[in-house]
Amino acid sequence: MSVIKRLPKQLFFLLVVKPVVYLLLGLNIYNKQRLPSHGPAILAANHNSHLDTLVLMALYPLGELHRVRPVAAADYFLRNRFTSWLSLNLIGIIPLDRQGQVDKDQVFEQCQQALADGQILLLFPEGSRGDPEQLQPLRKGVYHLARSHAGTQVVPIAMHGLGRALPKGGSMIVPFNADVVIGEALLPGDDSNAFMQDLQTSLETLLAQCITKRDARWEDE
Q1: What is the model's pTM?
Q2: Which residues, in sequence order, are bridge partners of residue 186?
Q3: How many Cα neighbours within 13 Å face the side chain of 183?
Q4: Pairing of strands 179-182, 153-160
Q5: For residue 124, what pLDDT band results from cuts at 50, 70 and 90?
């Protein structure tokens, strides 16, 4: 992608997304050095809010945003012409049809191509948003996708507070302080169950760290 084509996306994140994420939410980021700067890689995060995608992308410098490709729900991000244009052109999502109207193999192929191009996929292994700060069972799609392209690392990320800043069913952002903790990268082996258990344990541990760090801040105030 040329520099000129990247410019609208960079301006959108510079002028809209990053001010909301860093000023309105007061985001706290831990272990940012663990973020992969290039692919093939998958960011595997818990999912409580529609803010999750934008927050994770906002962690990256403007010059690296073109490498990050969220796999996002088509029924939300493509629900009308405006959000479709914004999601496809300024966010760069790979749309996932949860209604079963599009062959999932097509989505899988787009994800494989993104990894082959050295991009970073953003996935929510729970599949859909859950209750705030409550981790749901993970789906194995992240394992099979990581195994489809050699050398793909999976980086677990836990987010805390976004489910209250913009809860499921909500339409207005509440300035609720949020935390993001980035874990150590995992490499998928031959045993899918073992990998999924490692990912589940890592996300649970990171989420607990979020809560500990939040409580420590409150004690200091």
Answers
A1: 0.88
A2: 154
A3: 28
A4: antiparallel
A5: very high
